[in-house]
Amino acid sequence: MSQVSAETLTLHVPMALRKHGRRKTIVQPEGAPIARRQIDNTMIKTLARAFRWRRILELGTFATITELAAAEKIDPSYLSRVLRLNNLAPDIVEAIVEGRQIGGATMAMLLNAVPAEWGQQHRLFALNT
Question: Which of 17, 47, 56, 108 is deepest in the core (most CB within 10 A)?
Fold first, then answer.
């Protein structure tokens, strides 16, 4: 790092660009820590559905989960499981949206046995708050 003037700062960041098909990726130097963010679009879409469906029910557009499921042309059991995602701790939702890995969580794990208590969720997903 060298300073050019009092208002300008020049930084040297060791990296290389590599082409993979039409995409360019940044290659970090040897030994640099790799921060991987793997955004799971399926999880994000399912979370969005959960929040949307909760809002529809809160507004009274449909009186029951069964009516909403019929309107969405999906199984009421699936809709109920997705709705439970509204009970996820906010920092777990944030981690999913930001692509931070949360204890190897899968969509099946989220839709099945997620405890209601946030502390238990943190232990399940090994998320440190």
Answer: 47
CA-CA distance, 99 to 39, in Å (whole number)?
4
**Spatial contact of 105 and 111, defined as CB atoms under 8 Å apart:** no
- The C-alpha atoms of residue 55 and residue 51 are separated, in whole angstroms, by 6
Report how far residue 98's alpha carbon sits from residue 90's, in angstroms, rounded to the nearest whole number: 12
- This prediction's pTM: 0.67
The pair of structure tokens assigned to 20 is 């993979």
Distance CA 40, CA 75 (A): 23
Domain boundaries, the chain: 41-125
In this predicted model, what pLDDT tens digit does every residue of 6-46 receive, in sequence order?
A: 677 676 667 677 776 777 766 666 666 555 567 888 999 99
How far apart CA 12 and CA 21 sit, in angstroms, is: 27
